[in-house]
Amino acid sequence: MDEITFRSDTVLSDVHLYTPNQRHLMVRLNGMGQPVFLSQFKLLWDRDSQTDSGAKGGDHTEGTPPAGAVCSRTGASLQAGAGTITPEGLEAQLDEDGDLDVVRRPRAASASEPPGPPRDKVHPTILTQEEDDVLGDEAPESSPYNVIKIEHTMATPLEDVGKQVWRGALLLADYILFQRDLFQGRTVLELGAGTGLASIIAATVAQTVYCTDVGADLLAMCQRNIALNSHLLASGGGMVKVKELDWLRDDLCTDPEVPFSWSKEDISHLYGHTTILLAAEVFYDDDLTDAVFKTLSRLAHKLKNACTAILSVEKRLNFTLRHLDVTCEAYDHFRAWLQRLEGLAGGRLRFAVEPVDATFPQLLVYERIQQLELWKIFVEPVTDPTVSVDTASQPFS
Ligand SMILES: C[S@@+](CC[C@H](N)C(=O)[O-])C[C@H]1O[C@@H](n2cnc3c(N)ncnc32)[C@H](O)[C@@H]1O
């Protein structure tokens, strides 16, 4: 296969598009005949020093990266998010505060555009088993603990977007690594987890992560990614459980014949212990956004404890003929939901929404564009005795 040209109904994540190298390691075809690629995402942390200090989750505070993060091991080559097998690599550029200086892609096609194929084309390199060593060779100084390996596809129809890694997952993963204390020992549920990257990072700190999405093919890929990174989870004792959770269904599938269904014990553990809900880049279609928020509300009403939902979203600007202007309708719909949640009154739960300042350090390499946002929703039981409480009420069900 020399070249894939994307059809107009396929989408390609910027994470896979804007890589410094033109080579991608295709490892197999998935159950649907789509080429699957393997990317390595460099983790700019010094995991050993965190473990040594007993500060897995550690002593760091807001504004300060975990011990040794970012500045250590800069001798190892760095790659952009999915810059998988660049033999030459890129040297880490750190500013005077030790923050990562990300090499930005050119703003427009111009003389500064790197040479290579046009952006609608990708040239996969199909390697034989022996050539797989390319992966091992490209960063010889790098410990396996400083790399997360993710299998993904490169371009998909919209219904398969979960098979790619999206920038929001990297932003969320960065936030998890920055706020390790928040995740330490917790039970976490991720909605629309896709390739599972954020769930895997969460499980380096959390105790149990329910990594959920829909579709046996996608969930199998996710399960594979967890196996590929088991060494990252082992020492922390974190566990990732891949499960099907469809926002368009009210219940969790318990049919043991169905792959990735839930056992009664899992469901009881999920509701009894979960305190953090995650979702990255799941707000791109208004109907699905409605379904995600209804799912969040439904889950929050079933959880025994108060919980915090952490959501990443990319504000995508589009020129529409209908408006003859640049709009961001999917983002506006997302924000309308946040407002609606905050305005809810008289229910059993109170929802408080807060934007997260996305200036925390980057431990994964990607372009943290201004349009990438992180939001928190705090969900607490209403304790004011003067508020009449309808215990059965789930406002959006
Ligand atoms: C843009 S992808 C984001 C994937 C991943 N969170 C990331 O950021 O890389 C959106 C995800 O939502 C999932 N999704 C779409 N509809 C869903 C549904 N009805 N129930 C559960 N997940 C759904 C997709 O399968 C996909 O994994």
TrEMBL record:
It catalyses: L-lysyl-[protein] + 3 S-adenosyl-L-methionine = N(6),N(6),N(6)-trimethyl-L-lysyl-[protein] + 3 S-adenosyl-L-homocysteine + 3 H(+). CDD domains: AdoMet_MTases. SUPFAM superfamilies: S-adenosyl-L-methionine-dependent methyltransferases. Interacts with members of the heat shock protein 90 and 70 families; these proteins probably are methylation substrates. The lineage of its organism: Eukaryota, Metazoa, Chordata, Craniata, Vertebrata. This is Methyltransferase-like protein 22. One of its GO terms (biological process) is methylation. It comes from Capra hircus (Goat). Residues 49-69 are annotated as: Disordered. The gene is METTL22.
